[in-house]
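User: Can you predict the 3D structure of Bifunctional salicylyl-CoA 5-hydroxylase/oxidoreductase? Sequence below.
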Amino acid sequence: MAPVPPVGEAHRIAVIGGGPGGLYAAALLKRLDPDREVTVWERNAPDDTFGFGVVLSDETLGGIEHADPVVYAALQAEFVRWDDIDIVRGGTRHSSGGHGFAALGRRSLLAVLHERCRDLGVDLRFRTEAPPAAELATAYDLVIAADGVHSLTREAHPEAFRPTLTSHRCRYIWLAADFAFDAFRFEIAETEHGVMQLHGYPYQAATATAPGASTVIVEMREEVWEAAGFADLDAPASVERCAKLFADALGGRALRSNNSSWLTFRTVVNAHWSHGNTVLLGDAAHTAHFSIGSGTKLAVEDALALAASLQEQPDIPAALAAYETERRPVVESTQRAARASLQWFEELPTYLDQPPRQFAFNLLTRSRRVTHDNLRLRDAHFTEAVERDFGCPPGTPPMFTPFRLRDLELRNRVVVSPMDMYSAEDGVPGDFHLVHLGARALGGAGLVMTEMVCVSEHGRITPGCAGLYTDEQAAAWTRIVDFAHTQAPTTALGVQLGHSGRKGSTKLMWDGMDEPLPAGNWPLVAPSSLPYTPGSHTPHALAAAELPAIRDAFVSAARRAAAAGFDLLELHCAHGYLLSSFLSPLTNHRTDAYGGSLEGRLRFPLEVFDAVRDVWPSPRPMTVRISATDWADGGSTADDAVAVARAFAAHGADAIDVSTGQVVSDERPAYGRSYQTPFADRIRNETGVPVIAVGAISSWDDVNSLLLAGRTDLCALARPHLYDPHWTLHAAAEQGYTGPGASWPVQYRAGSRRPQTGRTDAPKPRLSLGG
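Assistant: Sure. Here are the predicted structure tokens for Bifunctional salicylyl-CoA 5-hydroxylase/oxidoreductase:
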């Protein structure tokens, strides 16, 4: 449709879809201006609904209370509330309290909103298909498309909204049971066909005359669903089969459906939420997996924000822009949490070897919204039990427990991640490196890693990159290692060895990242003759006969690193540098023994690893950093990463440092808090190989949560250590920890308590309407 330039205020409003989001938006807009003409089209009857229970958070309820006390009071009368989550696996139940849920029946919610809309004078047109949004847009000031995950409005105008729809790996069915669970229940069934799970929660309380009711969702991987024969069962037979599979959870009771069918969840993302005077709301604009219970919550909050924006802004274009500006960050954060939760359940079989209580903690923290710290506030007894199982001495946070790699015992689980400083001269680290690495060694981390140290002059990324290919460089590194070992004797120092490959001969990062030098370039080499960016120099494709010389450069650098006294060596096989380029099918197009299959692409990195391991002292550990995904179509995948990790472990790697991306310039990473940790998680729990997790881990609470859930063994942090060289010591102070896992240098001991600060009162996020 050609967008209608909207101007002025919204007096005539059309709402497509009579779900909770559309109805609530209609009610709010009519309440704010009784003179408005608001019409809602709903194709179904008033009491038709395809779900059972709806969960709303206290935050959402607070917004409803401020915006419309009448709706809030009506909902309060219907809510069933509970605090506990039960996780049942293998007949063992672990419970965690203090979570605070509120739920009601979807029919009850719709009835409340229907009544409110009628009282306010909203025109509700049931059993009526809405005219196309393009037609409504010419007759109404504003069109709100709340027409669900299968939005016809969105599908009719893909060029405007630019949707991305992603289907996932599990099948699920939405059912109900005629009794009230006494907690939010997750039950795991390990069957002959594979793992299945039940998600259940009450939405109607039991009374003297009625048993109550609960939502029950049964979910499993697609291949499990097929192996179990569900593809051949009709709906009644599927429902009966689910009741038998989870008879213990249901107490032998039956399940019922409401036109229920097996579905595959689809994540909906739109580049734009409005087009002209048409705006998307709720599932039409975005979806979040049901395992974090946010669909209705997000739609109701959308309605609140849209109504507020229309009230506050001078015209419709400004209002729609303000609505999207306010809501998009919230939605994107929720979708990241939902994606993490969804992926956790997809990979659930990899966690079945975990002890039951750790498994329960892992499930509770799967979305990264519930963390170790706030779970301890909710249920200290449960969290302390998980800590004891993990091996935490009393009063010791998980991050301050030791970890051993060969003969090296790290005093805590914090790693200062490798960070290129681009400050060496002719590859020689100078005073800057001494201060930089020395400060971080004094800062309390168990392991401090150097930047990528290049194994040859032509293996540098930039002229400012450090090396270990001359004796002068080795002497400079020895000075730094000696300082760290003398002044911070409980801190280990690790060296990361690498070769830039096709990403070399570029400017310093702050002068133009990945841009070729204007002069003084050196020749580039790679497995295949493919430039990194269209503006990059084209590398020479290495012949098989040239590979031994590069392998020997790594060996020479490793010998120098051992003599310098480094405690650990990491082989850099990530981020698109030379060894990484051999691993990725996007950068390795070879047809000889060093290309083709993953086995072929692994050949040269493994040859280098073996040669380095042979000269690296046996008591000292070796790790390997990999890019677990290229974030690009046709590139390395998480499945490949598991195979790569297994291969390096079989050759003697003591841990895998799991990063992602930076292999191709057109990558599309799914950025977000701890966004790379699921790859480390999968490698650890699928292979049993120790891992180092990296990627936007920014708080000590994140570190504790990841460790206690069994998703990683060590956590590497980069930017937090640039912000605060003493990040680990400050994490100890903030948690009141004074044990051996965080030893303050005597010179700094007077500062080991957190300084007092003045009071600050930040405004709370606005999710409600004023007045």
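The CA atoms of residues 442 and 488 lie 6 Å apart. Confidence is low (pLDDT under 50) at residues 1-7.
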